[in-house]
Amino acid sequence: MSQSSPSPQDADPLLPAVGLLALDRQYEALREPIRSALERVCDSGRFVLGPDVADLESELARALDVPHAITCASGSDSLLLALMALDVNAGDEVIVPSYTFFATASAVTRLGAVPIFADIDPATYLVDPTDVERKISRRTRAIIPVHLFGRTADMDALRPIAARAGVPIVEDCAQSILSTWHGRCTGGIGDVGCFSFYPTKNLGGCGDGGFLTTTRDDLAARLKLLRVHGMEPRYHHQVIGINSRLDSLQAAVLRVKLPHLDDWTEARRANAARYRDLFVRAGLAERIALPGDETRGRHVWNQYVIRVHGGHRDALRAHLTATRVGTEIYYPIPLHLQVCFRHLGWARGDLPETERAADETLALPIYPELTADEQRTVVGRIAEFFRSATLHRPPATVTVPSAGQPLPEPHVLARTTTAARAAESRR
Ligand SMILES: Cc1ncc(COP(=O)(O)O)c(C=O)c1O
After folding, report:
1. pLDDT one-digit tens code per residue, 55-76
2. Which domain holds residue 207?
3. Which of 36, 111, 211, 231 is most enclosed, with most CB atoms within 10 A?
4. 16 CA distance to ligand 1 centroid (A)?
5. HSE-CB of 200 using CA atoms within 13 angstroms
6. Number of domains in the chain
């Protein structure tokens, strides 16, 4: 099987396309209220912070059942602000997963602190608490678990580790809005939660935006100060902050969308359950590892990420591109192997599960408006790939059968045992 990725121009235009995202569908459904909210803000002349931002913050706090929600300019800034509020400084260490978006670690380095990368649990792709504990040192000042793809990191294990070390937990909730853990929303479990309104997130704006949550009054006050240059009152600067305010236009759009978030989340959950059913019925659950649902709370499925065994991920992705199914790799290069972090001294092999996930995982469309028919198309295309892979792949060992011996089974891939596949994928 070819490992090269075809360009989208190679795709057959007659096949029905299923995009990884379809933001236009959500906009179509809310076009009128969004436009009138934007017009209202333009008429008011209040473009930064203002009443829409204050109202959005109250509505978010209510929706997530936390005492404080503080908006800012992006999810990346929310992580930076959280670490600033916790007094993370140059030379301090912060434990983060390497299997996450760049901003989780860059917030640390922007303060001159050092990200210490921890490996993941291969079943959930979430940070492995055992490795976190192993990496605690005298210099550790915070732990940032990421609730990746919308599933909550193992907070039952992480909280006692942080408490023993005497360090706060900053939850990276960029992908996990409305996810829960034993009935509590993520963002209200650690000391501070960091969220993104990037358009592809479960609650996405018409541009950049973010917010923070905390149950701690002291942190809330500090975050409000830090996002406006540490200024209180006007032109009196108490601390050195940054400019990270949410636009009123974004807040107005987000206020239209927030009341729908619960329904959209349930639609994502239904899509995830339908994928499982379709994959199992197509006999594909052996070929790919399906993501599991959360048993201790609510998984909100910002991404539906499968693991493709046997080194076939890139060929499967090429096949899906050629047959007009959108996919993405989150994330192809783990952070500890990024060029910009080379000076930190990490090498391939340091985080084996992270590196394996980067080589084997593939995100499929999961957005709320995705139809059952589109999901059947996605699963059908994947089944098609494995059927043709089965036909084109030669038997592992080619022996000429002597007279009277049964002929070798041609569909070797189809009969590969789980153990053999695991060994193959480890190579
Ligand atoms: C896990 C994670 N952390 C942080 C961020 C940063 O958010 P933003 O793009 O709003 O700056 C993102 C967004 O992509 C993310 O997925």
Report:
1. 999 999 999 999 999 999 999 9
2. 25-259
3. 211
4. 31
5. 11
6. 2
